[in-house]
Amino acid sequence: MSFRNSRKKVGLYGGTFDPIHTIHLIVAEQARDALEIDEIWFLPARIPPHKQTKQITADIHRVEMIARAIAGHSDFRLDTIELEREPELPSYTYDTVHILKERHPDIDFYFIIGGDMAAYLPKWHRIDELILMVQFVALARPGYVMDNPYMRHVIETEMPQLDVSSSMIRKKIAQGRSIRYLVPEAVRMYIEEKRLYEA
To answer: Whole-model pTM?
Structure first.
């Protein structure tokens, strides 16, 4: 099946990326390839609604790590739209998509989420409006069931489930253990240089 049309197609990939790791890049590339998307925009969040009580690494470091991670991919780009918000406001996907559609009326946007986040779609801020504004794409491991009323609006595509997370990487660094190959080498070197996540 081809998903091609004449309008530019951009995948939006949001998250704290604290730090960005290899699986983030694999997810982005798999979505880009499966849906024939022209570009993937990485959107680092300032205060995700589900993480408002958690400590998040400074924006400047997360942005730099993303920039280094995607530097070699011509179809990946960094967009700091969510970092332009007032510091005390959470990053709602509805607000981000609304602004991006106003700025880029000639682009069709696809919002990339994992299967775990798809399960929470009924709780997303202004989801009934959001689901009509952007095409959601959910990546899940084979056999994973995403069952809620909003899934009929979501394109589902499978990808192998690889058990790597930012929290696991932070824990390994705090324990003085290797993260080589779990993050791009440029990101690993930046983490070491800035001594991020050390205990």
So the answer is: 0.91
